[in-house]
Amino acid sequence: MRRRDLLALAAGGLAGAAGPARAQSSATPVVGFLNGGSPGPFAHLAAAFREGLRDAGLVDGQNVAIDYRWAEGDSSRLPQMASELVARPVGVIVAVGGEQATFAARSASSTVPVVFIFGRDPVAGGLVASLGRPGGNLTGFMQFAYDLAAKRFTLLREAVPDATVFGVLLNPADSGADLQRREAEEAAARLGVRLIVQHAGTPAEIAPGFAALTQQGAQAVLVGAAPLFNSHRAAIVALAARHRLPAMYEWRDFPAIGGLLSYGSALADAYRQVGVYAGRIVQGARPADLPVIQPTRFQLVVNLATARTLGIEIPASILVQADEVIE
């Protein structure tokens, strides 16, 4: 083998290594993956993202390299991580796992393409000019993560009709916390029940947060949409069971491991979609011309085994709406 071929192989091997690395060979594009969560709990979502890349004709380690950056629930790390990806450089940044990742990527560069999963209207959030024609260096998936807090609260109330005191657990550091609080407060007032708002901004504050809700008389809890909570969903589901609190969550991932209810779009599908967009951008598409994708359906998931453990009989009105019932 000729010397230049050996050098090319060596460069490709180094660039595919995990963590920060030198600039990739021009023959192999690099996709930056910026996530506010943790690699373990988000592993299936990262796999869905890679599936989207494959749908676009790109396979990690073959004709594309992925540079993963995980903030582990600490959003203060995201700006530095985004700047490192821009400096590497990468061909596109996939900013997921919370709105802070998107804002960090946008602040790091006005030219590097960014594909986001955003929890609310990205036009109102100042990210794009319109959903159909984003017009800048950002596009992606509009998740409706925060806009559905009132709907989730109403479904939880319907599932436990005898409850009169409800709690909501929010991460105050999350950009969607205020919107979720307002929606929960309006729903509670409309339904004539009392609402207790409890904050948990770090993993260490989650268990005390549940204890505080119980001490204040909460009979059910709405767990807010937040990457921190998704990263620690096993602990949260266990805490809800320990305190015997019927709980409503955003993602199916929670009732899949013992949570009572969830209502939201399919998060894995969103990750696959941004993978497709990232692949198209690597291949020459402009984010300005790629319409922001919106979910076409929302899933209500009920775990009947958890309901029986809690001594709750889920009303037929909930069961007939459910897209999935876990026995």
Please give the alpha-carbon distance between the first and last residues. Answer: 60 Å
Return the domain count.
2
- List the uncertain runs: 1-25
**Would you tell me which CATH topology of the largest domain applies?**
Rossmann fold
Report the average pLDDT across residues: 90
- What's the architecture of the largest domain in CATH terms? 3-Layer(aba) Sandwich
Give a verbal description of the structure.
Helix 4 (99-108) links the parallel strand 3 and strand 4 (114-118). The protein contains 13 helices and twelve strands. It has 327 residues and is of the alpha/beta class. The protein folds into two domains: 3-144 and 267-289, Rossmann fold (3-Layer(aba) Sandwich); 149-264 and 299-326, 3-Layer(aba) Sandwich (Rossmann fold), CATH 3.40.50.2300. It has helices at 3-15, 43-55, 78-87, 99-108, 149-159, 177-191, 206-215, 227-231, 233-242, 253-256, 267-282, 304-310, 316-319, and strands spanning 30-35, 65-70, 92-96, 114-118, 138-142, 165-170, 194-199, 220-223, 247-249, 261-264, 299-303, 324-326.
